[in-house]
Amino acid sequence: MAFRSGFVTIIGRPNVGKSTLLNLLTGEKIAIMSDKPQTTRNTIKTIVTTNDYQIVFMDTPGMHRPKNKLGDYMQKSAITTLDDVDVILYIVEATDKTIGPGDLKIIELLKDSKTPIILLINKVDLVEKQNILPLIDQYSKVMNFEQIIPISALNSETKDLVLKETAKLLPEGQPYYPEDMLTDQPEKVLVQEIIREKILHLISEEIPHGIGVEVILFKEKQDSDLIEIHANIYCEKESHKGIIIGKNGDMLKKIGTLARQDVENLLDSRVFLKLWVKTKQDWRNSDFLLKELGYK
Fold it and tell me: Which of 1, 6, 59, 131 is in the most buried spot, having the most CB atoms within 10 Å?
C-alpha cells in the first residue's frame, strides 16, 4: 500500500469541538479547549504519522462575524486554509435541530472549494440516535459531502474512524515532517496558549475575550532541568485587571499553578512561571500588539 500524506483543515462555528477533536486525533494536548466560543485564535498545525500516512491537521479559529482587528485576523486565517489543503473536516453539532444561519454561511463558502469535504456531526452523546437522522438528511440535501459521520470528540473510538476515513482521501506522497514531530508551533506559543486556557476556565465573565498573553522570557537554566518563564497577561480595563489578579492575588496564583502543571507536562521539565497583568486598552485593534502576540 502506497504511503499517503497531506494537509487537513478542521473548520466549523465557534465551540463545536474542533480543538477537542484535534487533541483526540493527535493524542496530545496541542490546542487549548474551553467552553467559551472563539478559543482558538491562530491556525495550529499538528502532525499525525503512522506507517501508512502522515496527516498535517490545521485547527482554525471558529467561523464568526468579526468585531475587531483580532476577529478579522481569526476569520481570514480560517478561510484562507480552505483551498490550500487536501481534505476539509467540517464539524457541526448533533444538538442542532436544523441547519442554522452560521452553518449556512459556512456551506456557501465551502461550495466554492474544490477540496473533498467530510462532515462530522459532533456531540452525538448528547442526543438520541433517531434525532440525528433528520439532521443528516438536511445536510446531505444542501451539499454533496464525501462522507457524513456522526461522532463524539470525547470518545476514543472516534480517533481511528476519523483518521482512517481522512487518510483515504489524501494523495500518495512522502511525509512533510519528521515522524516524531507533533506540531510546528514554537514552545513559547504553546505556553501562551496554556496560560490563556487557564484564564478561560477560571474566569466566567466576558473578560477572557479581551485577554492576550505574551511570553517575555523563556530561559533554560544551565546545569539544571529548570526552565524560567515570564509572561504578561494583557487585558483591556483596569477593572478586569483586578478580577484576573483576585483578592490578595489568589486568582493569578491559581492561574499560574494550573498553567505551570500543564507546561511542565508539555516540556517534560520543572518550570518556574512568573505572571504579570497589564492593562492595554483596546489591544485587539492594535496592529502592533496583535503582531507582538503572534496574530499577524
Answer: 59
Alpha-carbon distance 92 to 121, whole Å? Answer: 5
User: Where would I find the H helices in 111-249?
Assistant: 132-142, 157-168, 187-202, 238-245
253 and 129 inside one domain: no
Residues 6+ apart with CB under 8 A from 46: 22, 25, 26, 28, 30, 31, 56, 57, 59, 182, 183
Q: Residue 215: enclosing H or E segment and its boundaries?
A: strand 212-220
Query: Which residue, of 168, 199, 223, is where some domain finishes?
Result: 168
Q: Tell me how far apart the alpha carbons of residues 119 and 127 are, in angstroms, rounded to a whole number.
A: 18
Among 168, 199, 231, give the residue marking a domain's end: 168
How many angstroms separate the most distant Cα atoms in the chain? Answer: 63
| Angstrom distance (rounded) from CA 193 to CA 22 | 15
Q: Which residues span the domain enclosing 201?
A: 187-292
Distance, C-alpha 296 to centroid of its chain: 17
Question: pLDDT tens track of the chain, all 296 residues?
Answer: 799 999 998 888 888 888 889 888 887 655 544 444 444 444 567 889 999 999 998 766 544 454 445 445 445 555 566 777 899 999 999 999 999 998 998 898 888 888 999 999 999 999 998 889 999 999 999 999 999 999 999 999 999 999 999 999 999 999 988 887 877 677 888 888 889 888 888 886 556 567 888 888 888 877 778 999 999 998 888 888 888 999 999 999 999 999 999 889 888 889 999 999 988 876 666 665 555 555 54
Count Cβ neighbours within 10 Å for each residue of 103-124 and write b for 16 or more, e otherwise: beebbeebeeeebbbbbbbbbb
- Cβ burial of 219 (10 Å; 0-12, 13-18, 19+) is exposed
Tell me, yes or no, whether 65 lies in a domain.
yes
Residue with cell 512561571: 273
Residue showing cell 512568573: 274
